[in-house]
Amino acid sequence: MINPFSIIDRRLGLKRHYRRIFERPLPEGVTYFYCLGGIAFFFLIVLTFTGVVLSFYYVPSASEAYHTIRFIDGKLPGGASMPGGWLMRALHVWAASGMVAAVMAHMLRVYITGSYKPPRELNWVVGATLFVLTMAFGFSGYLLPWDQKAYWATTVGTAMPKTIPVIGNFIMELLRGGPDVTGITLLRFYVMHVYILPLVSIFLLWAHFHMIRRQGISGGL
After folding, report:
1. What are the respective helix, strand and coil percentages of the chain, to the nearest 5?
2. How many whole angstroms separate alpha carbon 151 and alpha carbon 144?
3. Which domains does the chain show, CATH number per domain?
4. Are 175 and 158 within 8 A, CB to CB?
5. 119 preceded by cis ω (within 30°)?
6. Helix and strand element counts for the chain (H, E)
């Protein structure tokens, strides 16, 4: 029986590249706790897939956002719904929570085992920045359902920078697009959530993985 995968591999050499990238020796002391970063990346893949699917139906406007979320969840009068929408949204929400937990646990493991020490201090900085971006993903995505809970949580969250001397009010209005949380705020958070944060994250993830591959996995203390 002809194996199509072997035919493809003979022409592309996938196995050779797979071994060179993934089959690397591990130092002593590496346990399953060293897989937390990979778990966080798995959640990111789930978030990317479900987010793309949801974006086909979501409309980032003050008049349509709430109704499109109800359409996705299948809660509109008359029974109209996105096929499998409730599942995609549930996966997106739970994967977001899982990613935050995994990233925090990953950073805690890195700190406890001393894996942030030279020559990996730059990778620690990149990882810490990725953690900040993860929280920004969660904060910007929280507003997108455009319900009462999201509205008032964003109102409180975006008001916090106002306490910063001199530039606080500027930062608040930059986030909101004005003095209050409006449809402009929703659109800005959508652009941040779907375009700006993913682009920055892709670059930082590449740098993170590249340094891990070049420096290897730390064996701990």
Report:
1. 70, 0, 30
2. 9
3. 28-215 (1.20.810.10)
4. yes
5. yes
6. 10, 0
Residue 221, pLDDT > 60, answer no
Amino acid identity, residue 55? S
Q: Is 202 a residue whose pLDDT tops 70?
A: yes
Lookup: tokens for 190:
């959508």
pLDDT of 22: 62
Amino acid of residue 138: G
Looking at residue 187, its amino acid is: L
Q: What is the mean pLDDT of residues 178-192?
A: 97
Per the model's pLDDT, the better-predicted residue between 114 and 172 turns out to be 172
pLDDT surpassing 80 at residue 11: no
**Structure tokens that stand for 50 in this block:** 């479900």
- What is the length of the chain? 221
Banded model confidence at residue 72, pLDDT cuts 50, 70, 90: very high
b/e code 51-90 from CB counts within 10 Å (16+ = b)? bebbeebbebeeeebbebbbbbbeeeeeeebbeebeebbe
pLDDT recorded at residue 10: 73
| CA distance linking residue 130 with residue 111, whole number of Å | 15
Residue 51 vs residue 74, higher pLDDT: 51
**DSSP codes joined into one string, 72-134:** HHT-STTS---TTHHHHHHHHHHHHHHHHHHHHHHHHHHHHTTTTSTTSHHHHHHHHHHHHHH
